[in-house]
Amino acid sequence: MEPRYRLPEQHELEPQLEPEPYRDYEPIQPEPGWRSTLRKIWAPVAAAGAALAKYGVVLLKAKFLFSIFISFGVYLWIGGPWFAVGLIVLLFVHEMGHVIEAKRQGLPVSAPMFIPLLGAMITLKANPRDAWHEARLALAGPILGSLGAAAIYALGVAEDSNRLKAIAFLGFFINLFNLLPVVPLDGGRAVAALHPALWLVGLLGLGALVFFRPNPILIIILAFAAMELWRRWQTRGHPGARSYYRVLPWQRAVVAATYFGLAALLVLGMHETHVPRSF
Questions:
Q1: Angle CA 195–268–102, to nearest 5
Q2: Which residues of 239-248 are buried (b: 16+ CB within 10 A; e: fewer)?
Q3: 105 vs 140: CA distance, rounded Å
Q4: Which segments of the chain does DSSP mark as H helices, in order?
Q5: How many CA atoms within 13 Å lie on the side-chain side of 246?
Q6: Short-list 222, 176, 182, 228, CA closest to 201
Q7: Of 49, 85, 108, 161, whose CA is between 20 and 30 Å from 148?
Q8: Closest by alpha carbon to 67, among 131, 111, 37, 16?
């Protein structure tokens, strides 16, 4: 019988090396402690930034509610819950007057945007056809806002509540202030249908008020009013501007009666709703 031979396996042919002794791992350049701490702090910040970038569109669509939330917090801090709720409601009703009239004129308009300490505003994506339509759009806010303040006053009388009367007084004051004949206030846009000289009168009057009673908000309005007056003065000779400010006599009469009559009623409303103590 022939002997059988077994071929050696591959691992049997390789030399057997002794294993190296175990050594603890030591990084070449250990990370400083401050860098590790910074990474822990930065991680949640980066995650929040990524979430904001992802859902930023949703936040922009909800800017109406977001602006209400911020403004309510500021007014709550200044005057308490009654002041905050009352002011937000009054501003909302005022701005909805503009929104309703803009839609009646077929103008695309944004939802009201609340700005702490400056009130609220809407954004038009198209201009009114002429000064007559601009005046109607401007006066719609104070008209509806005054009706809202009058409703609060009626409720205050029915409930014999000085707090509600004080909120109504605030509403009458806000709408009267908006009738100042300076752009960007509603009064400045309304008197565009009357005579451009009223802009200069309003600007000088506001400047005198700022001089005797300095106020940051009044200074901001004065600066915007001066820039807008200068811009409109530069374009006064343009054919498009002449056509824009061409108003029929009956239209001018309607604007004048509404503007000055509303201002007088607001002064009367402030007189009737004035209370000796704050709410």
A1: 50
A2: eeeeebbebe
A3: 12
A4: 10-13, 33-54, 56-61, 63-79, 81-104, 131-159, 162-177, 186-190, 197-212, 216-234, 239-244, 249-273
A5: 8
A6: 182
A7: 108
A8: 111
Q: Dihedral sign, CA of 175, 229, 114, 258?
A: positive
Token code pair at residue 124: 């038009």
User: Quick one: pLDDT band at residue 50, thresholds 50, 70, 90?
Assistant: low
Tokens found for residue 128: 């009114």
Q: How many CA within 13 A on the CB side of residue 89?
A: 19
Tell me the per-residue pLDDT of 80-130, one tens digit each, with 9 for 90 and over: 888 888 899 999 999 999 999 999 999 888 888 888 878 888 888 888 888
Q: Assess contact for 150 and 269: CB atoms under 8 A.
A: yes
Q: Is the pLDDT of residue 185 over 70?
A: yes
125: CB partners within 8 A, 6+ apart? 107, 108, 109, 110
Residue-level pLDDT at 72: 83
Answer whether residue 55 shows pLDDT above 70: no
- What are the Cα distances from residue 238, in Å, to 134, 191, 194, 245, 249? 18, 19, 19, 11, 22
Q: Is the dihedral of CA 71, 74, 77, 80 positive or negative?
A: negative
Contact 181, 187 (CB under 8 A): yes
What is the residue-averaged pLDDT of the chain? 79
Instruction: Say what the pTM is.
Output: 0.72
DSSP 135: H
